[in-house]
Amino acid sequence: MEVFWTRGYEGTSADDLAHQLGVGPEDMHEVYGDKHGLFLRALERYRDAQARSLAPALLSEGLVLPRIRAIMLGYLQLAAEEAEPRGCLIANTAGEVLPGDPAVADCLAEVLSVVEDGFLQGLQHAVDQGELPEGLDLAGNAAMLTMLLQGLQVLVKLDPDPLRLTPAVDAALAGLNALSRGTVPLPAPR
């Protein structure tokens, strides 16, 4: 996963994978399968290690919205500390491999679904504990947060100062924060 994440699918050779896995190039295929199969397994590992951690982080005790902000800013901070920010394996893969690979597309869709569901669970938790009002379009806001996170992951690879994006995160979260304070009425249902 780390090799693909750092170098991309096309930039990763069978020799790179064999070296990382600690096997000879001639043994890699026999032991681990082909590069494409390993890539799909790497995407699944990313889903399990990265995406599945979102919901538990948002469902712990305390306010949800500050944790959403902290997660977003954590990605900015990580990118600021990396010599060459990697961004997100999912966003990177979408730009590099798609369209044209249905197996990868399915894997990416599943990962993004897990992320969106994590945000949805967190927002529902915020409603349940009175942090956000009833009647909020939770699905729409979960999709918005997923888009924000993926967009940040692309921008951090390009921006020499990723922390500069902190006000953009705050602007994107301003609507939810205003709803949590009761300073903005909910939009009328369509």
UniProtKB/TrEMBL annotation:
Tetracyclin repressor-like C-terminal domain ranges (all copies): 65-168
Signal peptide: none
Keywords in alphabetical order: Transcription, Transcription regulation
Transmembrane regions: none
Name the record gives this protein: TetR/AcrR family transcriptional regulator
